[in-house]
Write a structure and sequence with these properties.
Elements (H helix, E strand, L loop, with lengths): L1 H19 L6 E6 L4 E10 L2 E9 L13 E7 L6 E6 L5 E9 L5 E11 L2 E5 L2 E5 L9 E2 L1 E2 L8 E9 L2 E8 L2 E10 L4 E7 L6 E8 L5 E7 L7 E5 L9 E2 L8 E5 L2 E8 L6 E7 L6 E5 L7 E8 L2 E9 L6 E9 L6
Amino acid sequence: MKTKRHVLFLLACLCVFAASARKGTVSVEKIWDNGTHAAFTSLIKYRGQYYCSFREGYSHIFNAEGEADGKIRILRSRNGRKWHTVAYFGCDSVDLRDPKLSIAPDGRMMVTIGGSVYRARRHVKSIPMVCFTADGTHFSPLQPIEIDPKARTPKDWVWRVTWHDGVGYGVSYSSARRDTLSLLRTTDGIRYDLVCDMGISGFPNETTLRFEPDGTMLAMVRRDGADRQGYWAASRPPYDEWQWQPMGFQVGGQDFVTSDGTVILATRTYFTRHCKTALFRGTRTGDWEEVYVLPSDGDTSYPGLLIEGDEVWVSYYASTNQKGKAAIYLARLPRSLFDK
């Protein structure tokens, strides 16, 4: 049965590829695989070079001794083909994961990281962290993020930060408050003030924020409760009023970018028995259409997106063997693939 599923998956990928071949060539290359479980990517261009960050560990969470042992690796490339490590670090007794890259107003690249503390395989505390680099080679020591007391809990997670007009915005969620999603703002990447409760239920968690040229903030939220549908909304400054609409499908580890009015989304999909990483095109009003299924299976998703010239680059992870280990991949797709 497993072989049959793999054959069907490959046939589906070939069908999608054939439908898109008229618009250009899609390439997918493995850029990191050292036998560990590598996952949860982010992708950015900084000072003319490309950076891809991710977590490395024994498995998705725990090692053979039941400890959460995640460390952070950051790769760099001049051309997107050959990659090498520029940073690899951990934190004693803290599981590091979801390293998200952004560029702060002072020109430094910022790495926002979730830190989790486990006791006997039970999550007991979260320590959101951050570090910076001014040259892409030397990184500052990790330091905890300071969250407004009005929004702080023992299990906060600031999953991603997006900068606009000198201000960074991120969303904090917590398993201690499963129906609360807090929009935060920062000017230094370290201290975060509460903007508002975004007014969404169903255990909202991972949230990606992006900005339109007119200052409109777009938000896409993963929900792991109720009907589990992803939620989508737009808000104008001061970003304290939100009207949510269901996306019609579940998302996970999602990233999106906007280009000429089109929303390009990459996410884990749940349409088949085995999860895949797929790309969608959409509109600001939330009209979604699946465009391409990346070669992926098992434990997969958490893409990073970058528009580079006439291509869309996607970093992501996918399982590579029966033991559940995962490697990091970079896909290049023609931008025209997302045109109507």
